[in-house]
């Protein structure tokens, strides 16, 4: 199979935030997953699990979205500050009907981001909140001076203001965030964002709630009526084997036909990004406004015996393929897609980490993110692969997807997904304008349902990829059902 990379045709910068993540007050993502409290027997720093923290730093997590999701539009930030014993308890009406004690709030989230070394992306409450509430949150977070919110922050133990670049004005306001029409939300967004102010040298990147899947009218209305007031527009799309929300299929028990159907559905991301980008281009030809896919990933039935509202699912090689394909798509659209946030970070949906008590495992998706992190802030290169189709008669898909970039050191970074369950792929890579002198690589591979468990945490691990330089080309052998990263030096 021939693969051509034109190193002389350099394109957009691949924003590191394409490799972002999402943490909602949902199930065991925050509590037990990220935060166990300072009194826990599990090793922690200020209540944050050190094992998870170390893994996220190794993965080079660049940006983290919080507190939701649907939870964001019922979250009132003042309930989550001050002494724990004084924080309000509430019912998490969206996710499991459990008591939310607000022990993880603004200070804890900002500390988490500080320890990881990532940017915070905060979602404000439009659905059930007020303009004043949102405005005061930004003042509390970022104002350095004499004001009621700055004084309150100091009283709560943090005299210096934080830096908060990314702020979302509402979430899924077409659905759980208020069931609004786009015209109504566009006007609300214009109003709310006015009071999300820049204090000192903190400049806010204002993010508007964008469309659900293929709601192109929502994008049209928002860009037309509020585009001048936004820096980013979100888009959400989840990959499911079928469209029956009551029975989305098992995360671990599926046949080859279901595998190929699921991969075909995840490939729809290319169409969605392309069409929403085209609408944005009409109103923003200079591509100032980022398309932000801040919720994406696989969604299956919950694991048997778990709370249906906790959305806890296992994570297989099928999910590794889904992650690799989507990240390749985002890379290819780096001129418009400048942030993406897979859902969700720990113990929820397509998580990179699963925990159980003091145990922690890394999922196949984790390994993909860690390998792909070599693309962060690189320059996208023009590339093309002549891939045949594989799959079933009803669901044909490309056998290989790819993306390529060049880093500041002049290395070429290549990521490849072999979607074929039966056959390895021999890739001959021609690098136009580049003479390869050294090649290294890593690969994650296994059967389509292979996954790590707490009893067998290393079933799926990173291995050395088969790659060599032959007659001035780079030859790579991809095992069936695999995701690989190759680095080529001149």
Describe the structure.
It is a single chain. It contains ten helices and 26 strands. It has 490 residues and is an alpha/beta fold. The strands form six sheets. Strands 23-22-26-20-19-16-1-21-25-24 form a ten-stranded mixed beta sheet, with helices on one face. Strand 17 (389-391) and strand 18 form a beta hairpin. The longest helix is centred in the middle third of the chain and has 16 residues, at 268-283. The protein is globular and about 70 Å long. The chain starts with a strand and ends with a strand.
Q: What Rg, in angstroms, do the CA atoms define? A: 22 Å
What is the straight-line distance between the termini? 22 Å
What's the mean pLDDT score? Answer: 97
Helix content range: 10-25%
**Quantity of strands, as a count:** 26
Count the helices. How many? 10
Low-confidence stretches: none
Strand line-up across the major sheet: 23-22-26-20-19-16-1-21-25-24
Could you say which overall geometry the principal axes of the C-alpha atoms support?
globular
User: How does the major sheet shape up?
Assistant: 10 strands, mixed
> How much beta, percentage-wise?
25-35%
Helix and strand content put the structural class at alpha/beta
What is the subunit organization of this protein?
single chain
